[in-house]
C-alpha cells in the first residue's frame, strides 16, 4: 500500500514497503542473476549455493539488484493507480531493510497544477499586411535579379556591385600568413564577404592591374594571430564582370513563368501575396491568442520540465544538422559557444513553450476536448501520406490508440477552439507601423 504526500514545487513523495517474503524473493532473483560472479574455494564459478554466498560475501552484495527488482515492479503500478503525471526520474531513498522487509520512498516531480484565467473570448489584434503595386513590383525586381547574368566588361575600373576575379596574398609584418592566399577568386564588391576595407580598395582598379592594399583585421576575428592586426594584400585583377538584369517585358515573363504577359504575372503575384499575407496574419493571430491565454493563466513550472524541453530542442536540432552533415558540437565550436551557453540561450524559448503546453492541456481537460476515432483515423491517413507509407503499416507501428498521437490531435483542436472563440480587434498604430512584408520566394 502506497502513501502519497505532496511536497513543494510539484514534488510528490511516495512511501512504499515490501514484505519479508517479497524481499527474500528479490534476493533470490539477484542471486540467480549474479551467481556466476561469486567464487568460493571448493566450488566452481556459478555453483556456489545461495546460503554460502550470503555467509561468505554478506547479504548486502545482493541488495542492489534486489532493490531494483522490487522498485521496478512497484513503481509503474503505483504511478498508474494514483494517476500521477510524472516528469522526472524517481529518486530512491531506502529507509530500512530488516526482518520485516524493506521500507523506501520514491520522490518524483509531477506536472504542476494550472490555474486558468480567461481563455474564451480573449481580445487580440488582427491585421494583414497590405499587398500593393509596390510590393508586387518589388517581387518582380527580385525575379529579374534572380535571372540576371554576369558579363565581362572592358574599358572601365571595377566598382561596387561588380564581380571581380582576383589573385591575392596577405602579409603581416612582411610575412605571408596561413589562409591569406587565393587564386582566380570571384569576389562581389560590396558583398562584405572579406574583411572591412578590402573590397572598397579593390574598387577603382582595372583588369591586369597589380596593386597593394592595407587593412586591419577586426578585434573579433577568428584567428588569434590576426585579431586587430595590420596587414597588406598584393592583389591582381584578371577580369571584371557586371550584373546584367533582363528587360522587363513579355519575353522575360515567358522565360521565367507559365504566363504570356506581364499583366498575367502581376495578377498571379498579387494572388500569391494576398494568400501569404492572410496565412501570416492567421498564424500571428493564433500565436497571439495562445500567448494571451497563457498570460492569463498561472503555473509554477518545475525546473526539470524546462530542462527536459531544452534537451528535446537540442536533440531535435542535432538531428536536423546531422541530416545536413554538420555535427552540432562542431557548429557550436565554430560559433565560439559552449554547450552550456547554448542550453542557457534555449531556456528563454523552452520556458514559454512548456507553459503553453501545460495551459493548453488544462484547457482541453476543462473544455472536454478529445480526439475522436475519426480524428485519429484522419491523423493516421495524413501521416501515411507524409511518410509515403501504407496506412496499415502506420497503424502497426503506432497501434490503434497511440497516446502521443491523441495528445497531438487534442493540442491542435484546443488551439483551434481558442482561436475560434477569440475576438479580433483593430491593432493599435504602433503595432502595425513596424510590420514588414515578407518576401515571396
Characterise this structure:
By secondary structure, the chain is an alpha+beta fold. The protein has helices at residues 20-34, 50-57, 63-81, 133-146, 198-202, 250-256, 262-295, 303-323, 328-334, 339-366, 373-387, 391-398, 403-421, 429-432; strands at 3-6, 11-19, 91-98, 101-109, 123-125, 149-152, 163-172, 175-188, 210-216, 230-244, 423-425. The strands form three sheets. Strands 6, 7, 8, 9 and 10 form a five-stranded antiparallel β-sheet that branches. A four-stranded antiparallel β-sheet has the order 1-2-4-3. Residues 436-441 have low confidence and may be disordered.
Strand residue percentage? 15-25%
- How would a crystallographer describe the biggest sheet? 5 strands, antiparallel
Mean pLDDT over all positions: 93
Number of strands: 11
Radius of gyration: 34 Å
Low-pLDDT runs: 436-441
Amino acid at each position: 500500500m502506497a502513501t502519497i504526500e505532496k511536497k513543494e514545487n510539484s514534488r510528490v513523495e511516495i512511501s512504499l514497503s515490501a514484505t519479508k517474503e517479497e524481499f527474500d524473493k528479490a534476493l533470490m532473483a539477484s542471486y540467480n542473476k549474479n551467481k556466476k560472479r561469486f567464487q568460493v574455494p571448493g566450488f566452481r564459478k556459478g555453483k556456489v549455493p545461495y546460503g554460502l554466498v550470503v555467509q561468505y560475501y554478506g547479504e548486502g552484495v545482493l541488495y542492489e539488484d534486489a532493490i531494483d527488482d522490487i522498485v521496478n515492479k512497484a513503481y509503474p503500478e503505483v504511478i498508474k493507480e494514483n494517476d500521477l503525471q510524472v516528469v522526472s526520474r524517481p529518486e530512491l531513498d531506502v529507509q530500512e531493510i530488516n526482518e520485516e522487509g524493506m521500507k523506501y520512498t520514491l520522490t518524483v516531480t509531477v506536472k504542476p497544477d494550472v490555474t486558468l484565467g480567461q481563455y474564451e473570448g480573449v481580445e487580440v489584434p488582427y491585421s494583414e499586411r497590405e499587398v500593393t503595386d509596390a510590393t508586387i513590383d518589388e517581387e518582380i525586381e527580385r525575379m529579374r535579379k534572380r535571372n540576371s547574368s554576369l558579363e565581362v566588361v572592358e574599358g572601365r575600373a571595377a566598382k561596387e556591385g561588380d564581380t571581380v576575379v582576383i589573385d591575392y596574398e596577405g602579409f603581416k609584418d612582411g610575412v605571408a600568413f596561413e589562409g591569406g592566399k587565393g587564386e582566380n577568386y570571384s569576389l562581389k564588391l560590396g558583398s562584405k564577404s572579406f574583411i572591412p576595407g578590402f573590397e572598397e580598395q579593390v574598387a577603382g582598379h582595372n583588369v591586369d592591374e597589380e596593386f597593394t592594399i592595407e587593412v586591419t583585421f577586426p578585434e573579433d576575428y577568428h584567428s588569434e594571430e590576426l585579431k586587430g592586426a595590420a596587414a597588406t594584400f598584393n592583389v591582381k585583377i584578371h577580369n571584371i564582370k557586371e550584373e546584367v538584369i533582363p528587360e522587363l517585358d513579355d519575353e522575360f515573363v515567358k522565360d521565367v513563368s507559365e504566363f504570356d504577359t506581364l499583366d498575367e504575372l502581376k495578377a498571379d503575384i498579387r494572388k500569391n501575396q494576398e494568400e501569404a499575407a492572410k496565412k501570416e496574419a492567421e498564424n500571428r493571430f493564433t500565436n497571439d491568442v495562445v500567448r494571451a491565454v497563457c498570460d492569463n493563466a498561472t503555473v509554477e513550472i518545475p525546473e526539470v520540465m524546462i530542462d527536459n524541453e531544452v534537451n528535446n530542442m537540442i536533440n531535435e536540432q542535432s538531428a536536423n544538422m546531422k541530416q545536413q552533415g554538420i555535427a552540432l558540437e562542431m557548429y557550436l565550436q565554430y560559433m565560439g559557444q559552449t554547450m552550456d551557453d547554448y542550453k542557457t540561450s534555449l531556456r528563454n524559448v523552452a520556458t514559454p513553450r512548456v507553459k503553453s503546453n501545460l495551459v493548453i492541456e488544462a484547457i482541453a481537460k476543462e473544455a472536454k476536448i478529445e480526439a475522436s476515432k475519426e480524428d485519429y483515423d484522419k491523423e493516421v491517413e495524413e501521416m501515411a501520406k507524409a511518410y509515403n507509407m501504407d496506412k496499415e503499416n502506420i497503424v502497426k507501428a503506432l497501434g490503434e490508440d497511440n497516446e502521443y498521437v491523441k495528445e497531438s490531435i487534442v493540442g491542435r483542436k484546443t488551439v483551434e477552439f481558442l482561436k475560434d472563440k477569440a475576438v479580433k480587434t483593430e491593432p493599435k498604430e504602433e503595432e502595425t507601423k513596424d510590420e514588414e512584408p515578407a518576401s515571396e520566394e
